[in-house]
Automatic annotation (TrEMBL):
Enzyme class: hydrolase
Keyword set, alphabetical order: Cytoplasm, DNA damage, DNA recombination, DNA repair, Endonuclease, Hydrolase, Magnesium, Metal-binding, Nuclease
Cofactor stoichiometry and binding remark: Binds 1 Mg(2+) ion per subunit.
Substrates-to-products reaction catalysed: Endonucleolytic cleavage at a junction such as a reciprocal single-stranded crossover between two homologous DNA duplexes (Holliday junction)
SUPFAM superfamilies associated with the record: Restriction endonuclease-like
Keyword Nuclease: yes
Cofactor: Mg(2+)
The protein's name in its UniProt record: Holliday junction resolvase RecU
EC number in record: 3.1.21.10
Length: 201
C-alpha cells in the first residue's frame, strides 16, 4: 500500500520492513520487532494494572479504496495527515510517560538520522511539562536493548545542529543508559529503568 505525506512525497516504509526481517531471535519470540516486543510488554503492564501505555495511532487520510466485494475492502492509497510525534505514551505511577522506539543494525553507534526534529521538539515540550521522556534503542546485531534518557538524546541532537557528531556512540548507551535484559513477563521490563529514573527526580 502506498502512503504519501501531505507535501506529496511518497513514504518509504522499507526500514520498518527490514527491522522485522533482521530482528534477532529471542527466547522463543523469533522474528519479533522491537515494536512488537514493547507492545507485548505493554499488554502485560496493562493486564496487571501496573501502567497504561499504548502505541500512538498513525494519523492517515484514506483517499483510494477498492471494493472487489462488500466484505473485502482494500486501501490502495493514503496520506499521512500530519507528522507523527513519538511511538508511545501513557501513565505510570502518576507520571506521564512518552517515548520512541528505534532499531539499528549498526554495532558501534546509533545514527541520529533515525529521529526527526518534530519528534525531538515534542519530547522537549513533554519533558518541560513534567513528563518523563526517553528512547528505547535495539542494537539488532548485538541483540542488546537500551533505554536512554531524553536529556542524553537532546545533548547529541543539539550538538549535531552546531557541527557535532551525527550519531550516539554505543559507549554512551553503556555508560549513561539502562541495559534492558529480556525477561518472561514482561518480555522487555523497561519500566524497571523508568523506576531508576524516577528515583533521581
Amino acid at each position: 500500500m502506498k502512503f504519501n505525506y501531505p507535501t506529496g512525497v511518497t513514504a518509504n516504509n522499507s526500514s520498518a520492513s527490514n527491522a522485522k526481517v533482521n530482528a534477532a531471535p529471542v527466547y522463543g519470540k523469533r522474528g519479533m520487532s522491537l515494536e512488537e516486543e514493547i507492545n507485548t510488554s505493554n499488554t502485560y503492564y496493562l493486564s496487571n494494572a501496573i501502567a497504561v501505555i499504548h502505541k500512538k495511532p498513525t494519523p492517515i487520510q484514506i483517499v483510494k479504496v477498492d471494493y472487489p466485494k462488500r466484505s473485502a475492502a482494500t486501501i490502495r492509497e493514503a496520506y499521512f495527515s500530519k507528522a507523527s510525534t513519538t511511538d508511545y505514551n501513557g501513565v505510570y505511577k502518576g507520571k506521564y510517560i512518552d517515548f520512541d522506539a528505534k532499531e539499528t543494525t549498526n554495532t558501534t553507534s546509533f545514527p541520529l538520522s533515525n529521529f526527526h526534529e518534530h519528534q525531538i521538539n515534542h519530547m522537549k515540550q513533554c519533558q518541560n511539562a513534567g513528563g518523563i521522556c526517553f528512547t528505547i534503542v535495539k542494537f539488532v546485531k548485538l541483540d542488546k536493548i537500551f533505554l536512554l534518557k531524553a536529556e542524553d538524546l537532546f545533548h547529541f541532537w543539539d550538538n549535531k545542529e552546531t557541527g557535532g557528531r551525527k550519531s550516539i556512540p554505543i559507549s554512551t548507551f553503556e555508560e549513561n543508559g539502562y541495559l534492558i535484559n529480556y525477561h518472561i513477563n514482561p518480555l522487555i521490563p523497561y519500566l524497571d529503568a523508568v523506576d531508576q529514573i524516577m528515583k533521581k527526580l
